[in-house]
């Protein structure tokens, strides 16, 4: 079989904290060198991508890099993509990169659509090693790491969110399965309050905030204990919520 003439799609993790708080390299040196040679990128937010790429010692000036912002969802629906257009550099034989604003691209991230398209077009997908809040939080939670499920974002409406929490609690208890949830930072307090209010009192709830950042804190308690001393979520800091009912 002849090797494919296509370039590769490199999935480039980014730190979980802010660029100004990043005091050490987050990619393995061989991976950093591979990324530094790229010129074509698909990114969640160009401004954030420029800041991260600026810390990697790119071989080309940042202003000369081709950064294309990923499309967001419209009215809750996944966008329609012309994959050949978005992945044109790889189809032309050049390696290209995919970046999320924080963490691993393709996980709770619009880049997943293009990863799927790359596979369909025969483009090799190369995940690079980097920080993952999901695994870091699971490691530190003390909850079941043998069986777990990432649920992403819950509904914004309070009644729908409460119903979803109750349903996931039943699933967790029946399957002995840890549930992992995330939320936009400014809604973290509402999420924490909802979990404490609607989970069974004997469920164990882990609140992991600012993982790898300067305000990192991971605390697992029963919901009954959380009700005695409710969690206070820091402003503008990412958080991961895990529970086992």
From TrEMBL:
Domain Tetrapyrrole methylase as annotated: residue spans: 87-224
SUPFAM superfamilies reported for this sequence: Tetrapyrrole methylase (SSF53790)
Keywords attached to this entry: Cytoplasm, Methyltransferase, rRNA processing, S-adenosyl-L-methionine, Transferase
Pfam short name (any one): TP_methylase
Membrane-spanning parts: none
BP-aspect Gene Ontology terms: methylation; rRNA processing
Cleaved signal peptide residues: none
UniProt entry tagged with the keyword Plastid: no
Protein known as: Putative S-adenosylmethionine-dependent methyltransferase, YraL family
Lineage: Bacteria, Pseudomonadati, Pseudomonadota, Betaproteobacteria, Burkholderiales
Claim: S-adenosyl-L-methionine is one of the keywords in the record: yes
Cited InterPro entries: 4pyrrol_Mease (IPR000878), 4pyrrol_Methylase_sf (IPR035996), 4pyrrole_Mease_sub1 (IPR014777), 4pyrrole_Mease_sub2 (IPR014776), rRNA_ssu_MeTfrase_I (IPR008189)
GO MF: methyltransferase activity
Organism this protein belongs to: Lautropia mirabilis ATCC 51599
């Amino acid at each position: 079989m002849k090797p494919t003439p296509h370039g590769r799609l490199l999935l480039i993790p980014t730190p979980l904290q802010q660029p100004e708080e990043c005091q050490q390299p987050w990619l393995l040196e061989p991976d950093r060198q591979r990324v530094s040679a790229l010129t074509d990128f698909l990114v969640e937010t160009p401004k954030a991508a420029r800041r991260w790429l600026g810390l990697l010692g790119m071989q080309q000036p940042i202003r000369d890099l081709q950064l294309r912002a990923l499309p967001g969802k419209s009215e809750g629906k996944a966008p329609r993509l012309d994959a050949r257009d978005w992945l044109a550099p790889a189809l032309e034989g050049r390696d290209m990169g995919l970046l999320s604003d924080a963490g691993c691209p393709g996980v709770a991230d619009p880049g997943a659509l293009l990863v799927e398209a790359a596979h369909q077009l025969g483009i090799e997908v190369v995940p690079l090693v980097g920080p993952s809040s999901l695994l870091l939080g699971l490691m530190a939670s003390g909850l079941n790491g043998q069986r777990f499920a990432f649920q992403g974002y819950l509904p914004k409406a309070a009644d729908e969110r409460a119903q979803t929490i109750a349903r996931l609690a039943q699933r967790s208890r029946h399957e002995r399965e840890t549930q992992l949830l995330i939320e936009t930072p400014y809604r973290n307090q509402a999420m924490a309050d909802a979990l404490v209010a609607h989970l069974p009192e004997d469920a164990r709830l882990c609140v992991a905030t600012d993982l790898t950042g300067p305000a990192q804190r991971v605390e697992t308690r029963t919901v009954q204990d959380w009700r005695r001393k409710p969690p206070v979520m820091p402003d503008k800091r990412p958080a991961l919520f895990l529970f086992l009912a």
